[in-house]
Amino acid sequence: MxxxxxxxxxxxxxxxTVLFQFEYxxxxxxxxxxxxxxxxxxxxxxxTNPRExxxxxxxxxxxxxxxxxxVAMCSPSSIKISKEDVQKYYNYIKNISSSKVTALxxxxxxxxxxxxxxxxxxxxxxxxxxxxxxxxxxxxxENLNFxxxxxxxxxxxxxxxxxxxx
Length: 166
What we know:
- There is one protein chain.
- With 166 residues, this protein is an alpha+beta fold.
- Helices cover 30% and strands 36% of the residues.
- The protein contains four helices and nine strands.
- The protein has helices at 2-9, 64-72, 83-97, 146-163, and strands spanning 18-26, 32-39, 43-48, 61-63, 75-80, 105-106, 113-122, 127-137, 139-142.
- Strands 1, 2, 3, 4, 5, 6, 7, 8 and 9 form a nine-stranded antiparallel sheet that branches.
- Helix 3 crosses helix 4.
């Protein structure tokens, strides 16, 4: 009985669409803004230089409406994540979101920024609360949670499949 209750707490809400995001931005050689979302169905939805993008604020939040607008600017890729993997990585989000992130460290110039995020939807407020998992490029920092490295490795595999250059 206790096992069933624990599993129920880890189910993905029907209202939450987006679970993870990869984003690359570079202003050095002309504006580049590419990335993808992974939704609760395992779809990988890509974007390239979308117009009127809703960037999260300093606290990494977006309203449900803003997230839906961003998703509407995406195109489905040929990549589909299995339900088992979606659930497995979704289960890491709560731990990652409650962990600290290292301080920013400047390591390059003109490299842009690659960022990996996870999201939790608050059904009470209708807000997506984002958590930074890792940032690479001009500045680096990373989430200190044990599961962060697993999620980043998984997402880098997806990123490589889509873009081949990262």
